[in-house]
Amino acid sequence: MMFNERIWTVFKQNWQHTLTYWSVFFSFGLSISFLGPTVLDLRCQTQSTLQEITCVFFAQQFFLLVGSSVGGLFKETQKCALSALFTCTLLISMVFAIVPLCHSLLLLAVALATGGLAMGIIDTIANFQLVKIYQKDSAVFLQVLHFFIGLGALVSPLIAEPFLSETNCVLGAANATSELRHLRKTLGRNTAHNWSHYHLLTEGIVVTQVAYAFWIMAIISLPVPLVVLALLHRERALSCCCRARSPRLLDQEGVDMKTWAAGPGEEEPKNLHTEGHGGLFSCCRNKPVHTLSPFSTGVHILGGLVVFMTDGIIGVYSVFVYSYAVDPPLALKHKTAGYLSSVFWAAITVGRLISVPMSCRVRPVHMLIGNLAGMVITTLLLLLLHTHGMFLFVGTFFLGLFLSSVFPCMLAYAEDTLDYQGCVTTFVVTCAGTGEMVLQVVVGSFMHRTGSYSFLLCTMVIASVGFILFCVLLLFRHMHR
């Protein structure tokens, strides 16, 4: 009860900042999942081929990774972080509004790359700021933060669905509606597929209403930068300079917050703000590389590798589970297999919601042990029961459930291990984005050579490696305690 009361007290002291970061991640979630269902209409809009339009996936994902790496440059002060969040959320709204006006593939790629860069910066700053504010209690609020990603990712396709073309949106094409629906579900789930056997017209009269979907999402996301702007006004930070040394948020809270945050029998958290934290290698800024603690380096590397594997599984599974399900030995109907990705993301969203109250009573390390062990067991059962279509749905749900809270728990655990130095946040976020992008390419290439049946084997191997790396991290911390 004391723990819950402490969390509630600290939340009341920082509720405006916390709600702002949560709303920012909802805007982030909107930007994650809109590209898959709308990519065929965007192909018509830019009058490009399927092979050419899929490059926008890479543009967005690559610059999201770049944004995650450079996001640490904007988190030195609370005011500078809010200024960066305002700029990035406004950019996302502008990208939604501009995408329907991009009739050139290059312009569309530039717009989505800009949106990806803003998403990456948001990812790093919001995670870091919540860890900085709540420290030992950050796991609860990180779970809520990542729940809003899932919520936005669920809302975005629902907005787009009524405006998607049922037939080919370039007049004169003879493709059947059923084929287009199958192709739409395949696109957005399997970016490594060979599209050369699909011949869709690139010239003709373009008939698509997808612009309305993007404009609706632009309107929905527009209040988010206004919320950040209101908090900037409250902090009197509109003329912020990132090098300013004004009083930080935690310094203003006084002794009461330190007392509640420490808890009985615990040391008070150290002041995080005596030094600013920069980019990916900010921990090396104030001392030579050779003087870095081997313990700190080991936690960075092992923690980053764990989320590299787990977030990589999320990317791989959401992309390739459809292709696996429609091929032998399961050979599910295309419409039935199309629900697998929705089940997976719904399980992730539900899992993050369930993890919020669990984080109040269960330590992040214990949640990580349960989630990673459950992930390995689920992938093993999926591999053993690979001929049972019904269990594929059940296993997909439980896999999403176990994967849902790994990233926020690992972030909280790593920061707690390093006494909230702050620099580990940028590294973990960057590793997560790298894993999601790299493992999709690796598994996609492996499936192309050996067949889609190797999908579950790859997933189980990645899950097992992630679990082994986490066990090494536990042993490493025990040896250096």
Automatic annotation (TrEMBL):
<feature type="transmembrane region" description="Helical">
    <location>
        <begin position="140"/>
        <end position="160"/>
    </location>
</feature>
<keyword id="KW-0812">Transmembrane</keyword>
<feature type="transmembrane region" description="Helical">
    <location>
        <begin position="453"/>
        <end position="476"/>
    </location>
</feature>
<feature type="transmembrane region" description="Helical">
    <location>
        <begin position="391"/>
        <end position="414"/>
    </location>
</feature>
<feature type="transmembrane region" description="Helical">
    <location>
        <begin position="210"/>
        <end position="232"/>
    </location>
</feature>
<dbReference type="GO" id="GO:0016020">
    <property type="term" value="C:membrane"/>
</dbReference>
<comment type="similarity">
    <text>Belongs to the major facilitator superfamily.</text>
</comment>
<dbReference type="Pfam" id="PF07690">
    <property type="entry name" value="MFS_1"/>
</dbReference>
<dbReference type="InterPro" id="IPR036259">
    <property type="entry name" value="MFS_trans_sf"/>
</dbReference>
<dbReference type="InterPro" id="IPR011701">
    <property type="entry name" value="MFS"/>
</dbReference>
<feature type="transmembrane region" description="Helical">
    <location>
        <begin position="367"/>
        <end position="385"/>
    </location>
</feature>
<feature type="transmembrane region" description="Helical">
    <location>
        <begin position="301"/>
        <end position="325"/>
    </location>
</feature>
<keyword id="KW-0472">Membrane</keyword>
<feature type="transmembrane region" description="Helical">
    <location>
        <begin position="426"/>
        <end position="447"/>
    </location>
</feature>
<protein>
    <recommendedName>
        <fullName>Major facilitator superfamily domain-containing protein 4A</fullName>
    </recommendedName>
</protein>
<keyword id="KW-1133">Transmembrane helix</keyword>
<dbReference type="GO" id="GO:0022857">
    <property type="term" value="F:transmembrane transporter activity"/>
</dbReference>
<feature type="transmembrane region" description="Helical">
    <location>
        <begin position="81"/>
        <end position="99"/>
    </location>
</feature>
<feature type="transmembrane region" description="Helical">
    <location>
        <begin position="105"/>
        <end position="128"/>
    </location>
</feature>
<feature type="transmembrane region" description="Helical">
    <location>
        <begin position="337"/>
        <end position="355"/>
    </location>
</feature>
<feature type="transmembrane region" description="Helical">
    <location>
        <begin position="21"/>
        <end position="40"/>
    </location>
</feature>
<feature type="transmembrane region" description="Helical">
    <location>
        <begin position="56"/>
        <end position="74"/>
    </location>
</feature>
